[in-house]
Amino acid sequence: MRIDPIIVRARRLRPRRIIPQSVSRRVRRFWAVARRQWRRSLQFRVVGITLALSAALVLAFAYTVASLISNGVLSGKIDQSKSMVDTGAGYAMRELSGFTQADDPGLDPSLNNVVTQLYGSVNDQEAEVVMLRRGGPPAFWPRARKGTVMDDPQVRGIRTLVVGSKSGIYEQIATLDIGDGLQKYLVMGTAVPVGPVPIELYYVIPLKTEDGLVQFTGAVVTGTGIALVALLALIAAMMTRLVVTPVRVAARTAQRLSAGLLDQRMVVRGEDDLARLAAAFNQMAANLQRQIVRLEEMSRLQRRFTSDVSHELRTPLTTVRMAADLLFSSREDFDPAAARSAELLQAELDRFEGLLTDLLEISRFDAGFAALDAEPTDLVPVVRRVGDQLMPLAERCKVELRVVVPETEVIAEVDPRRVERVLRNLVGNAVEHGEGKPVVVTLAVDGSAVAVTVRDHGVGLKAGEEKLVFNRFWRADPSRARQTGGTGLGLSISLEDARLHGGWLEAWGAPGKGAQFRLTLPARSGDRLVSSPLRLVPDDARADEAALIGETP
């Protein structure tokens, strides 16, 4: 017979919440708000620190005052009670001096008489006087109470001291119930030497008045401390507000100034330090406004000058171009020197015309007049067309130009004219600086962006030059002989074209390892880029770096 095992599954019990979840959530929310206010508000920090320090100071002061008052009141009561106990012990010793035996039959009545007389000398009617002797009944007053408080476990300590000593007065403070409820009492005890067995004499004195005085003093000190702490916090808040308010006004004014509202100023009241700060801030804002207006005017004049010069040079350039074309077409009839001059004139006119075109384009970017004519475009033929256009230059420079594009269409909402101009600049620079080594143009796409990388293996870029290459008229090596006669504005215009699309134009380079430029554009016009389909650093360069540090690329 087969017996299947029985599996018992124990369900894990969740621990019960000691604190309700709603309370815990409120505490966390309050703590988060307090932390945020602590980080952001100077006034909140000052008030909080003032409140904490003043609370600690007032707490220490209140504890010291309450302790001094309590000790003073208790010390006075103990001294007064000691004098009373000493007098009572002397009286009892005189009255009981005739008894020499502990079992004398007249001792108990005498003890009761002595207790009655001693109670009469006590000013407090709620007190109790007790006399005890070994082997005999206790004598105590008032008689109406049953038993004696000296049987309470709290007073065993003082009884041990009194029994073990033949002289001396001992005291103990205990919370006892002798008929009127629990109260604090001062228990005073001493030994009265009568015969071979000393008699114990105890005074149980209520501390109701002294305890009430101490509690009243503590309540007064506590209330005064709370009021003082609240008053200090209020004063700190008011004084901090006097300083923080102008600072907040200055911060808001600075934010408006940074937003372009250059006419914003602070209100100056009085002649104190804050007023001088506001006046200095207003003076700084006025100076900045004048400088910004001046710079804007100079920039406007510069842009207008560049645009006007570029436009005005068009007419003489056209005339010179016509004359140069005529000379260039007839150069075969000239002597070699004149023919070479006609060729140089034609080449420089081409470069000059390109420079004027780039200057006009830069002036439109500076003036904010550049417009994007975005339309769905297949970038595969655009990249191939750029490769075909620059293939003669690559053959002249003995550079192998490879174009790597997907087999399918790569559709993106771009301005094809601007994208083609960017790619011509990037590929032309790569061929120019390729040092006869291959140049690879790669196109890739993902769900949100398209990217084109242009990789050369020439001289490369030094550290920091990947940012400088986009500056106007910047050249890495001015001594290099150019093949294309560039104007020095190509990469600057390319960067502006990329920004106009909402894209990125980035550069990477290393000495002796070549350079790579990456153009990344959003697939849909107006989208925000978060990543690129292609890496900026080439795979071969990453492999070399990984090999140097002994890691897998």
How far is the first residue's CA from the last residue's CA?
Answer: 63 Å
Strand order of the largest sheet: 2-1-5-4-3
Radius of gyration over C-alpha positions, nearest whole angstrom: 51 Å
Number of strands: 12
Detail the poorly predicted runs: 1-15, 479-483
What is the mean predicted local confidence, pLDDT? 78
Order of helical and strand elements: HHHEEHEEEHHHEHEEHEEHHEEH
**How many alpha or pi helices?**
12
| Estimated structural class | alpha+beta
Biggest β-sheet description = 5 strands, antiparallel
What is the overall silhouette?
A: rod-shaped
Beta-strand share of residues? 5-15%
Question: Could you please describe the fold and organization of this structure?
Answer:
- The chain has twelve helices and twelve strands.
- The protein has 553 residues and is α+β, with helices and mostly antiparallel strands.
- The strands form three sheets. It has a five-stranded antiparallel sheet with strand order 2-1-5-4-3, with helices on both faces. A five-stranded mixed sheet has the order 7-9-10-12-11. A two-stranded antiparallel sheet has the order 6-8.
- The longest helix is centred in the middle third of the chain and has 57 residues.
- It is a multi-pass membrane protein.
